[in-house]
Design brief:
The structure is a homodimer.
Chain A (H helix, E strand, L loop, with lengths): L10 E4 L9 H10 L4 E3 L2 H7 L1 H11 L2 E2 L2 E5 L8 H18 L4 E4 L4 H4 L9 H21 L4 E3 L16 H11 L7 E6 H4 L5 H8 L4 E6 L23 H10 L6 E3 L11 H14 L2
Parallel strand pairs in A: 1-2, 1-9, 2-3, 4-5, 5-6, 6-7, 7-8, 8-9
Helix pairs in contact in A: 1-3, 2-3, 4-6
InterPro entries (chains A, B): IolE/XylAMocC-like, Xyl_isomerase-like_sf, Xyl_isomerase-like_TIM-brl
Protein name (chains A, B): Sugar phosphate isomerase/epimerase
Keywords (chains A, B): Isomerase
């Protein structure tokens, strides 16, 4: 396992972590200030400053991307299928312009939450089937841009409203079906927050192998968790044995960034530099 | 599948559903008033009125039990092992006195939450191992009382603090290892709240078969869920296709009660009779 204790060269900052403290350009400046080499920006943050300015800021600071958040929300009723397809194609175009190595897919839960206004459904099996079809369709477009798609299994707590792919096994089953030749076009993004509870996840990480491990995200699971979406913890403040998961992905050959993504009403109230400094310190000690 | 639309003879009320509206004796009176034939009481509610009075009230009203909640919280540090064992033996004694058909096991998460004061750990694999050893030990005592144990896999959102067995598959793996002969001493309690998200659960219900399906619980998953523990929904108010799960367990031969267990800060504020009437109406229409 790589030694992270001496520096933070393998730290990437998912820009949602400080999204309330500044816009994407200010976050990029903060990264430059703190010697952070990579980010994973969100589409809404890019849109807020404009794609052109975001691309220039990334280039001028020499930042790498560890991913682009996010494609997906594939589930909808029939009237919104074209909207879903076009939205995801634009996502590919943006990721390409920014130089992202992959697009992180949050696949969507039930249609009424994934694409508001869609007819309500309780059929999660149908949602899963729709997700798989839509990933297959998106892959065709993404291949043209040479952009790998990384399915992010989300914690089962989000099955209804955010993602109906909730285990690494399910995500890898989809990879096997849609890219049996392991061409590199499809893989997974694993976030310890979503997978730490899964008794099968270490075996699944081994199954994934280096070519399907496209991104590795860290934060921590707090007990108690006061808000299902926005009470994620700073690494070290919760109950996840983070190093055990980094060990597992690196044992398969993963050598990319360890990306910090923290949705937290608590950390969003703190000054950007304090959050970034804490991320660096925890990256060196507990990741 | 049994027709529930004409009456509520297969409705059991888990007494936690109205635990803030009255004590166990008052809940038993309400069940008698509303023609409810079965309950699943909690240990703290029994203790609050005294075991002897609870036993008499159950007998006098002719109520059946669909289970006894709950045994478990097996994970602890070494200094609390005896406490855990003795606590669970008392649970068996109480269940026997009350005439329960099984004990529902909430197995515990990490030791510091399962048995407060235990040394803190992030080792969920060790917790799982400890749970399995402790179930094996409890089974010996429970066999003497002819009391089956029903492992309840809890939603992965509770993996840290309540139960580190989070899927039907994991629970059934434990059953296979500890009771390979399917003697009836060990099975599962399946609550739609905890399992609805699991893409493998229908196959696992088939694997369980009638002899391991010891209890079936219903409520609903609300979107958004405002509190991880106490914002469960009344059946029909959320996103779970409840009938699909009842169909699946009944297809295996399950013919017991459909037990309503709702932890809800919302429903706890309503009058007991209103909650019970709503339970009956939803049991007949959406369960």
């Amino acid at each position: 396992m790589r030694d992270f204790s001496a520096d933070h060269r393998w730290l990437s900052l998912n820009t949602a972590t400080v999204r309330k403290q500044g816009d994407l350009l200010q976050i990029i400046e903060a990264c430059a200030r703190h010697g952070i080499r990579a980010i994973d920006p969100w589409r809404d943050q890019v849109a807020a400053v404009g794609l052109g300015r975001a691309v220039r800021a990334v280039r001028e600071t020499g930042l790498e991307l560890s991913g682009y958040c996010r494609g997906g929300m594939f589930t909808s009723d029939a009237s919104r299928r074209t909207e879903v397809r076009d939205d995801n194609r634009r996502c590919v175009d943006e990721a390409k312009a920014l130089g992202a190595p992959c697009i992180v897919l949050v696949v969507g839960g039930l249609p009424q939450y994934s694409r508001p206004g869609s007819a309500a459904s309780k059929d999660i099996a149908a949602a899963r089937s729709q997700v798989e079809d839509a990933i297959a369709e998106m892959m065709e477009y993404a291949r043209g841009a040479k952009l790998p798609l990384a399915i992010e299994p989300l914690h089962p707590v989000y099955a209804g409203d955010r993602a109906c792919v909730n285990t690494a096994k399910h995500a890898l089953d989809i990879c096997d079906r849609l890219d049996p030749g392991r061409t590199g076009a499809l893989g997974v993004a694993l976030d310890v927050y979503h997978i730490w509870w899964d008794p099968e996840v270490l075996a699944q990480i081994a199954r994934a192998g280096k070519d399907r491990l496209l991104a590795f995200h860290v934060c921590d699971w707090l007990v108690p968790t006061r808000d299902i979406l926005n009470d994620r913890g700073m690494m070290g403040d919760g109950v996840i044995d983070i190093k055990s998961f980094r060990w597992a992905v690196e044992a398969e050959g993963f050598s990319g960034y360890s990306e910090i993504e923290i949705f937290s009403d608590t950390w969003w109230t703190k000054p950007m530099d304090e959050v970034v400094r804490t991320c660096i310190e925890r990256h060196r000690t507990v990741v």
